[in-house]
Amino acid sequence: MTAKRELVIGGQPWQRAASIWVRMNVFVIERGIALQDEFDANDEKGVTYAVIYEDQRPIACGRFLREGEDAGRLTRIATLADYRGQHLGSQIIAALERHAQSLHIKNLSIHAELTAVSFYTRLGYRNASPVYLEDGVACRTLVRQL
Q1: Half-sphere exposure for 38 (CA within 13 Å, toward CB)
Q2: Closest CA to 13 of 67, 51, 55
Q3: Which of 19, 65, 118, 137 has the maximum number of C-beta atoms within 10 A of its C-beta?
Q4: How far apart are CA 102 and CA 93, in angstroms?
Q5: How confident is the model at residue 40 (pLDDT cuts 50, 70, 90)?
């Protein structure tokens, strides 16, 4: 039997919970990022999450934050270890970009870990900052105009 995959975008409590479950596994358990750093004030009502489910199990996620009239930020892009290499992250990014466009967002940014910079540049993002630490991890801000 073939697994059924579905990408869902929304801000419902169950969607937020699914995203948090993936992030708990990837960032806190696997990567060792502190709970208080991973789960921030942005995980509140009104935030949009994109989650890919396989047979109703969340396997990849991302979060969209509005940052002004025509700007937004993509955050917390994560895929469970067993599902990496299947282009799920790029599907999450594309879905969140479409969501941003529906809100008339023209400029997107991502705080990318250095290990993920080449992934985001392949998707059209460009470097906009020197290296800095965020939650103890070396990052760069990348930007893209929609």
Answers
A1: 21
A2: 51
A3: 19
A4: 14
A5: confident
Q: How far is the C-alpha of 62 from the C-alpha of 48, rounded, in Å?
A: 9
3 state SS of 106? coil
Q: Are 129 and 143 in contact (CB under 8 A)?
A: no
Structure tokens at 59: 């396997």
Is the pTM above the cut of 0.85?
Answer: yes
| Count of CA atoms in the C-beta half-sphere (13 A) of 103 | 20
- Residue ranges of domains in the chain, CATH in brackets: 5-106 (3.40.630.30)
pLDDT at 44: 80
Distance (Å, whole) CA 118 – CA 122: 6
- Whether the pLDDT of residue 122 is over 90: the answer is yes
Please tell me whether residue 83 adopts helix, strand or coil conformation: helix
Q: What is the rounded radius of gyration, in angstroms, for the C-alpha atoms of the chain?
A: 14
Average pLDDT of span 3-16:
95
Rounded CA gap, 60 and 124, in Å? 20
